[in-house]
Amino acid sequence: MFQDLFEMWGVRSIGDFVKNRRYKNGFSNVCRACQSAYNRERYLVQKEKFLKRAKVWRDKNKEKRRVYQKDYRNKNKERLKLLAREHYKRHRTRIIEQNKKYYEDHKESCLARKKLWRLKNEERVREYNKKYKLKHKIAS
Questions:
Q1: Whole-model pTM?
Q2: Burial class, 45, CB count within 10 angstroms (exposed 0-12 / middle 13-18 / buried 19+)
Q3: What's the gap between Cα 42 and its chain centre?
Q4: 135 or 73, which is more confident?
Q5: CA–CA distance, 30 with 16 (Å, rounded to integer)
Q6: Each residue of 65-102: b (16+ CB within 10 Å) or e?
Q7: Could you tell me which of 38, 36, 33 has the C-alpha nearest to residue 13?
């Protein structure tokens, strides 16, 4: 009953506010939803400024970002693998079309890369071919 009255009057619970030590009660005077809407609007109005600032920070902290990203990938390997698999399932046809288009546009470099890989991995190729022939009963 009181919850309905609070909602009607626009009264919010203390959990709807962010902690902020600058205020006497320890909480901000703006609720999370209002602050989020304000931040979103501010970003849209000043998008170029935000993007420029982010680029400057990325350029200054390349090594820090590289270490952080490597650590994050190692800690979340399974989760990232699952997300990638789900993304592929959702966008399979588009991804296949993009790959075909890329291959057609860069055919020579793709073939050169394949050839180089085969040269570097002769043993793997030989082992794969051996297993394939056994499985499909192909006489050599």
A1: 0.54
A2: exposed
A3: 24
A4: 73
A5: 9
A6: eeeeeeeeeeeeeeeeeeeeeeeeeeeeeeeeeeeeee
A7: 33
**How far is Cα 140 from Cα 133, in angstroms, rounded to an integer?**
8
Identify residue 5 by its one-letter amino acid code.
L
Give the confidence band of 5 by pLDDT, cuts at 50, 70, 90.
very low
Tell me the pLDDT band of 132, cut-offs 50, 70 and 90. very high
Q: How far apart are CA 109 and CA 95, in angstroms?
A: 20
Q: Closest Cα to residue 110, out of 120, 118, 102?
A: 102
Give, in order, the Cα–Cα distances in Å from 137 to each of 22, 84, 126: 76, 35, 16
CA dihedral angle for residue 7, residue 12, residue 15, residue 19, rounded to 10 degrees: 160
Q: How many CB atoms lie within 10 A of CB 35?
A: 14
Rg for the chain, CA atoms, rounded = 28
C-alpha of 117 from chain center:
28
Matching residue, tokens 């680029």? 55
Higher pLDDT residue, 123 or 24? Answer: 123
Helix residue ranges per DSSP H, 2-121: 2-9, 32-45, 47-60, 62-75, 77-90, 92-105, 107-120
